[in-house]
Amino acid sequence: MLGLGSLTAQTFKPNLYHSLPEVKNGGGIDTVRIVAIMVNFQEDRDGATFGNGKFGSIYSEDYGNSILDPLPHDKEYFEDHLTFVKNYFTKVSKGKLLIEFTVLPDTFSVSKTMRNYSPAPGSDDLTNIADFATEAWTLADQMYSGFDFSQFDLFTIFHAGVGRDISLPGSIGNERDLPSVYLSEIAFRNIYGDSFDGIPVSGGSFKIKNTMIMPETESRELNTIVGTVLFEITINGLLAASIANHLGVPDLFDTETGLSAIGRFGLMDGQGIFAYGGTYPPEPSPWTKIFLGWVEPVTVELGNADLSVVTNLAASIGDTVILKIPLNSSEYYLVENRSRDVFNDGSTVAYKVDGTIFTKTFFKDTTGYLSFDVDSLAGVVIDVDEFDWAIPGSGILIWHIDENVINQKIADNKINTDKLRRGVDVEEADGIQDIGEIFFTVFGDQVIGEGTKFDLWYSSNTSDLFENRFAKDTRPNTKTNSGANSLITLKDFSDISNRMSFKIEYGDSIVKPVFSNQLPLDTNFTTDITVLNNDLQSRFCLHTGDMIKITDASGIALEDLLEFSFFKPAAVFNNQIQFIVGVYDSTLKIYVDDGNSSIVKTVNTGVRLTSPAVIRTNSNGVNDILIGTEDGRRLNYDLPPDGQASLINT
Q: How far apart are CA 35 and CA 160, in angstroms?
């Protein structure tokens, strides 16, 4: 996972490795039982790693207990961090996910120095770190002979040193630190082969099939022109995201470039993971909560309506927290009301220092309590009253979800690698798609867009492009990812409050009169209409998104065809056969109906198609298909009576 930023200040950039989660079914109450061990390395003097391989060696002086993650980094210290994630998941899941944990008491050392277990710089090969996990659990089994590892389902290694998870301007010295990563059974099999069935422990009666690898801290010393400076950042957000990976949740940053994709609006992005110095992330995105079975959205029925959504913490039974607005068969909006301070009582942080729990309340963002500056905090943060204080602002947040992208890419954990077609995307209300974009300050520092308060929807939003309306002709617009007009308008957003309202309208000034006065058709399919010139019966082909519906003249559905065409299909009736031709990614979809039966033929062209199909009929009544490709060619296919088209020329 990678990419942190603030357009006003930024001191570092996350550089996180992405995991390969195992997709699991959510729903109901789940309990994650964690066992953790504390592992040293052989002592070294390696300039490419922080510390000497032993716990507590990363600090060159005694900073006392007024810093984040103060020494000693022992059993109680790691229990405090796990207490944070226990509190986090209990709250954000509303009790549907419970965390239990055991930290084994003694540290021990593996056989090599840290660099020997670290991937080479720039490499995605995690063999060395898998070997580290295998050795560590084997040694732990020997040290804790008789310990029943089978009582746990998530296995965690806290290791000495920092993680190779952040990059600081002008710093060197962490090229061979270990990356923080969740190794699922899938990841282990990718490394060791399909024969991997776990790391044997408990006398071989149980096998460990996953490992979460975490550093003792992310804090580190930097040498600057004014001397040695301690950069303080902690591991709470990193722990929460890795546990979510264990639950099957994919990362929501761009896992190929590491850049942010959803900013500070959710847990599974580097911006959120390291918000407020890594002390606490925001709540997960609504898609993540739905994916885990923690919440069910309310689907908006077709028709103009006044709608409202209530913030999660203020919601009572019967209140709507997440609205789902379908665009087509695979795309929809999730609409939620997010607030940094639901109860208008500031942000209260509980933290533990030397065994004592303290609380501190901040009534506004202030020096020492900002997303990039948490000098006012100390010890280990174990709880926060509202995790969404970590988001950039308050108001309605609109998410564009594309299940086609998610389904195609989730196995490789790459659902947000295409910034032009993300699986989970924030519709930024300010009209500037800058989350994940790289900027440079006047001082030459690189910053990465993480979202601002102007990305939320509310009537008093003062950004230049905000119209208090979200429609086909606004920026951003309500078109589908294929470019089709969804004919949906959201408008008249109220101002920020725990219950916010807006209006939804379907259709526009051109389409609505046609459908309301002339054609008694399903208004969920009003993007394109093709009148079928069919001597057998009067019929219509309705298209929206990638789906077509064939109806009779009274609007009664005859057939629904999913994943048929991203563009308005072409149709021709010839020799008593009805043809409908659609374009779906790199395939032609050809519907053939002879009046007795129908069939859909699929022709793979081997190249992405970027224009609607055109059917050409010559003077002899012979049909062929013309289609444009993304590399600028025009393909020409014949169209025989059975619909099994073949390439004529390019």
A: 17
Q: How far apart (Å, rounded) are the C-alpha atoms in residues 566 and 404?
A: 12
Q: Please report which residue ranges of 93-195 form alpha helices under DSSP H.
A: 127-143, 185-192
Residue 222: count other Cβ atoms within 10 Å of its Cβ: 16
Q: Which residue has the higher pLDDT, 199 or 26?
A: 199
Q: pLDDT tens for residues 124-153?
A: 899 999 999 999 999 999 999 989 999 999
Tokens of 44: 């070294």
3-class secondary-structure state, position 85? helix
* d(C-alpha 67, C-alpha 59), whole Å: 12
Is residue 232 within 8 Å of 277, Cβ to Cβ? Answer: yes
Compute the 3-state secondary structure of the chain and give helix, strand, coil in percent, each to the nearest 5.
15, 30, 50
Residue 241 has pLDDT above 50, yes or no: yes
369: nearest Cα among 385, 344, 346, 345:
346
Cα(335)–Cα(153) distance, integer angstroms: 34
Q: 119: number of CA atoms within 13 Å, CB side?
A: 18
Nearest-CA neighbor of 38 among 76, 69, 88, 67?
Answer: 76
Nearest to 219 by CA among 58, 339, 351, 101: 58
Give the whole-angstrom CA distance, residue 637 versus residue 601: 13
Query: How many degrees, rounded to 5, is the angle at CA 460 between CA 454 and CA 465?
Result: 50
Three-class HEC string of 489-532: EEECCCCCCCEEEEEEEECCCCHHHHHHHCCCCCCCCCCEEEEE
pLDDT in tens, 65-103: 999 999 999 999 999 999 999 999 999 999 999 999 999
